[in-house]
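Hey, can you fold this one?
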Amino acid sequence: MIDVAHAWLAPGGRIAVIDLAPPNFDPATLEQAAGEMLGSRFADRRAEVLGRHLVLIEATAR
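Sure. Predicted structure:
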């Protein structure tokens, strides 16, 4: 999904993903997990817990 989104977006384009978190999700690891998932292809990453099992991840394509 990340490869397709990056290929589709022009540099500077924004992506926002709302995803389900696993039942054993630890909110303290969200920023690290988002960074690992998006890698160096996206900058200005922001991750936020929306509820017990939902997370929002936003980023800008490089």
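The radius of gyration is 12 Å. Let me know if you want another pass with a different chain boundary.
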